[in-house]
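Why this split exists: single-chain examples teach little about how molecules sit against one another. For that reason, every record in the complexes split bundles all components of an assembly together and asks for one structure covering all of them. Below is a record exactly as it appears in the raw files.
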Amino acid sequence: MSHVVSPIREKLVTGGKSYSDVTHDICKQVEGEPTKEWKWAFGISSIVFIYGAYCLFYTWWQGIGVWGLNKTVGWAWDITNFVWWVGIGHAGTLISAVLLLFRQKWRTSINRSAEAMTIFAVLCAASFILAHMGRPWLAHWALPLPNAFGSLWVNFNSPLVWDVFAISTYLSVSLLFWYMGLVPDLASIRDRATTKGRKFWYGLFSLGWTGSSKTWARYEYMSLILAGISTPLVLSVHTIVSMDFATSVIPGWHTTIFPPYFVAGAIFSGFAMVQTLLLITRVVFKLEDYITIEHIEMMNIVITVTGSIVGIAYLTEFFIAWYSGVEYESYAFINRATGPYWWAYWMMMTCNVISPQLFWSKAIRTNLMVSFILSIVVNVGMWFERFVIIVTSLHRDYLPSSWAMFSPTMYDIGDYIFSFGLFFTLFFLFAKYLPVVNMAEVKAVMKGVSSNFPEKKKATKKTEE
Amino acid sequence: MSSTTNYILGVYDDEDEVLHAVSEVKSKGIKIEDVFTPFPIHGLDRAVGHERTRLPIAAFMFGVLGLACTLSLISYTMVFDWPMIIGGKDFFALPNWIPVSFEGTVLFTAFGLVITFCISNNLYPGNQPDLLDIRITDDKFVMAINVDKNKKVSADDIKKALKDSGAIEVNVK
C-alpha cells in the first residue's frame, strides 16, 4: 500500500527489527552514559582542537605572514583547505536532497550523519576564509551593510562576493534542513526521557511535535521543497567556488570546464568522507543492522562514478590546454605533470583516478577494510587536486625571475589541524547527543524492506489488499 | 487538545491497518479528529479528510519575494547609490547578478517556508504538547475521535467500530 518494493532489492534494515527496536537502538546512544571508546575519541579530538585553536589564534593575532606564502604563491594551503572542506560538505546535501528527489530509500539511515557532516565541514571551510581575510574582525565588510564610507557597497560583479552569499546561504539552509529533520526524532527522545534535564532540552528543541497526520503531510511537502531548492543550491555553491578561479586570467585556472568538474570532485570527496565516518560510526555505535553492506556498496558505486567523471575532467583539461594552442596554458599543464611539483600531480592522479576503479570488483566494494582505506585515499587525492590547481598554477608565472616554491610553516599545518579538531569534536558531540540515524524515515521504509518484519503484519497486509 | 475535551482513542500497531481503519470508521458515520503516527503515511491526511496543504504556494511567494529583494538591493547599490565602472561593464550588469539573486531566492524560500510551517502547525520552542498517547513517537498509531463532535453515534458504538477496524487498544482520554 504505502510502497511497492521489488523482491530482488537488498534489505535496507537487517536483524528483524520492529519500530520499537529502531527507537530503542538509536536512542540508547543518547540516553546512556558515554562509552569508553567515545570518551577516548572525544578526548583526542579535543586535544587536536585545542592545539589547532592555538595555531589559529596565533595566525589571527600575527596576521597571515606566519604562513609560508610568498609574492608568487599568494594562495596555498588556506584556499586548498577551504575548497577541500566545502567539497566534502556537498555529500550531505546530495544524500539528503538529491537522493530524496530520486526516491532512493537507502539514504534514510545515512542522511542524518551526512547532513551533520556537511554543516561541520562548511564551518571548517569558513575558518579558512576568515583566517585568509587577514583581519577576521572585519569579515562583515564582505556583506552589503550601510557604512560610513559613503556608503561604499560590495561589488556584486565579483565571484568572491558571490562566494560569500553562496557559502552563507548554504550553511544556513543546510542547518535548517538538518534541524527540521531532527524535530520528530527529538520528540521521540523527549517522550522517552527519564531525567528532567533530557525532558527539558529535547522538549525545548522538539518544538511541541505531536505527530498529527496533518503536520506530517505538511512536513513531507516542506521536506520535498527544501530538497528541491537545496539541489540547485548545492550545485551553485561549488560552481561559484570554481568561478573564484575560472573568472581569473591565470593559466590553469581560466577554464570553462571548472564548474562541472568541481561539482563532481566535491561529490566524490564528500562521499568518501561520509564513507570514512559511517564505517567508524557503525562499529562504535553497533549500527550494523541499519548501515549495512548494501549502503557501503551504494556509496562506493557513487564514488566510482564521480571519480571517473573527475578523471575525464583531468584528461579534458590536458587535451584542451594542448588544443587551445595557448602556450602559457600548455606550459601550466606540462609543468603540473613534469615540473617540480610532479609528485603532487601523480599523487592526485593515482588516488583520484586509479584507486576508485578498484570498486568495479564486487569483492572489493563490499570489503569494509578496503572501503575504509580507499575512502581515505580518495580524500588525500582530492586535497592534492586542489593543491595542484592552486599552487602549481601560481608558482611559475609569466616572469621566470619570480618563480618560487611554496613550503608550509607550522601555522599552515596547525590551521589545517584545527579544522580536523573542530570537525571531529563537533561530530562526536553530535553522535553522542543527537540521534545519528533518522528514526522516523527509517521506520517509514521498513515495512517493505526490513528482513523478517514480523510475519503477522505481512499477513494482515495481504488479506486487506 | 484541552483536558476538558473527551476523546476516544484507537491504538493501532501497523501503518496499513490504521490507513484502512480510517475509511472503515468513517464509513460508519464517525468523524475522526486526527490520526497521530510515528512517521508519515502517504495518503493518510487525505483519508482523514484534511485539505491539501498550501505550503508550496507560500514557498513560491517567499521565493519571488527573495528574488525581488536581492535584485532591488543589487540594483540600488550598483546602479543608483554608487555606480562604478567595473571591467567596462554596464552598471546594470544583470548576468553577473544571477548568482547572488539565486542565493537570495533560496534563502528567503527556505526560511519563509520553515517559519510558515512552524506557525501553521503551532510548533515553537518550549511548547509542551499534551500528547494523547506517549507511544505515538515510538511505534503506535493513534486515531483520536472527539466525542463532543460525534453526537449522533454513541460512545460504545465508537469503541466497537475502533475495535472492529483492528485497534489493539481502545482508550478514553
